[in-house]
Specification:
Number of strands: 6
CATH class: Alpha Beta
Oligomer: single chain
Radius of gyration: 17 Å
Number of helices: 7
Distance between the termini: 45 Å
Order of helices and strands: HEHEHEHHEEEHH
Structural class: alpha/beta
């Protein structure tokens, strides 16, 4: 699935993206997709995170459960939409975005944009690499009782 990511939206996406690129989306990113593959396809494609104005709650939960970072920053999206060459193309490579997770700040073009910090539960899932890894680690750490 990672090989055909966004193909129905922009057939050129797979030729312009590079592993490590950040995807920036608009409102309700991930709406209409209840399957976890919508998030995992991006993760396995080498995309480290998605920034959007907002997310479908199902997409967000699937992303965190699979150790994939997503966060909301509507001000960044508004800023990008004001740049004609970015607004007018289905997919465009934007300027570099720097993410400071500790301060919850994105920086682009010398401008800073705050985003809400990820919840402790989301952080734990991401650090563990997803819910399956988190549960497995907890089971390994828990002393076993002999019947």
């Amino acid at each position: 699935m990672a090989a055909v990511t966004f193909e129905n939206f922009d057939p050129n996406f797979n030729t312009i993206y590079r592993s490590g690129d950040i995807v920036v989306g608009g409102l309700n990113f991930g709406t209409g997709s209840s399957r976890e593959q919508a998030a995992t396809a991006l993760k396995f494609k080498g995309i480290p995170c998605v920034i959007a104005s907002s997310f479908s709650e199902t997409y967000k939960r699937n992303a965190f459960n699979n150790g994939f970072v997503v966060f909301e920053c509507p001000e960044l999206v508004t800023h990008l939409r004001a740049i004609p060459r970015l607004r007018d193309a289905p997919t465009t490579v934007a300027p570099e975005i720097t993410i400071d997770y500790g301060k919850s700040i994105l920086t682009m073009d010398g401008k800073s944009f705050a985003f809400p910090p990820l919840s402790p539960a989301a952080q734990e899932l991401i650090v563990a690499g997803g819910a399956e890894n988190l549960v497995a680690a907890r089971l390994r750490a828990k002393p076993q009782k002999n019947g």
